[in-house]
């Protein structure tokens, strides 16, 4: 599995923690930045992750910013992206199972690093259920 990951300064420490977690599981991670705690603009990192997922050079994406909202809104501007803001493991799982989410967005300022790893794990261990959910997903695009 290959995953693209990106964050702004608020999510930088979480991004580093997630990269370590995924690497230890043997998952190939493409780090799109940021690479420090210096203040940056979240779209500069959300777009590259969304482009990789959209272009299918990676299977999934993970984005982190302070609230999770900015990166989620940005990623969802891309065709075929279904970015989901999740703050519990259950939501991470349901985003994949019911919404076929392909980018997980996380709010660094509102959840612990430990909880973040549980959400990432839940997101990755789940898969789209299809069926009635496919009909709904088909109605998302404009």
CATH architecture: 3-Layer(aba) Sandwich
The outline comes out as globular
Span of the ends, CA to CA: 29 Å
CATH class: Alpha Beta
How many alpha or pi helices?
Answer: 6
Query: Which fold name is given in CATH as the topology?
Result: Ribose 5-phosphate Isomerase B, Chain: A
Low-pLDDT ranges: none
* Rg, nearest Å: 14 Å
Considering the protein shown, what is the CATH homologous superfamily? Sugar-phosphate isomerase, RpiB/LacA/LacB
The structural domain count equals 1
Strand percent estimate: 15-25%
Describe the structure.
The protein is an alpha/beta fold. It has a single domain, classed as Ribose 5-phosphate Isomerase B, Chain: A (3-Layer(aba) Sandwich). The protein is 44% helix and 17% strand. It contains six helices and five strands, in the order E-H-E-H-E-H-E-H-E-H-H. The chain has helices at residues 12-24, 43-54, 69-75, 89-99, 113-125, 132-138, and strands at residues 2-7, 28-31, 60-65, 83-85, 103-107. The chain has a five-stranded parallel beta sheet with strand order 2-1-3-5-4, sandwiched between helices. Helix 4 (89-99) links the parallel strand 4 (83-85) and strand 5 (103-107). Helix 1 crosses helix 5 and helix 4 packs parallel to helix 5. It is globular and about 45 Å long. The N and C termini lie far apart (29 Å). The mean pLDDT is 97.
């Amino acid at each position: 599995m290959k995953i693209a990951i990106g964050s702004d300064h608020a999510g930088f420490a979480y991004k580093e923690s997630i990269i370590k977690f995924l690497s230890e599981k043997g998952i190939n991670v493409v780090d799109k930045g940021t690479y420090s705690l210096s203040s940056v603009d979240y779209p500069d990192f959300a777009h590259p992750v969304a482009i990789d997922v959209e272009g299918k050079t990676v299977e999934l994406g993970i984005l982190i910013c302070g609230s999770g909202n900015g990166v989620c809104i940005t990623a969802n501007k891309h065709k075929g992206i279904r970015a989901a803001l999740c703050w519990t493991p259950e939501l991470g799982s349901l985003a994949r199972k019911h919404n076929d989410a392909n980018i997980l967005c996380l709010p660094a300022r509102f959840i612990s690093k430990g909880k973040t790893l549980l959400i990432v794990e839940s997101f990755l261990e789940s898969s789209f259920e299809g069926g009635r959910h496919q009909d709904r997903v088909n109605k998302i695009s404009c």
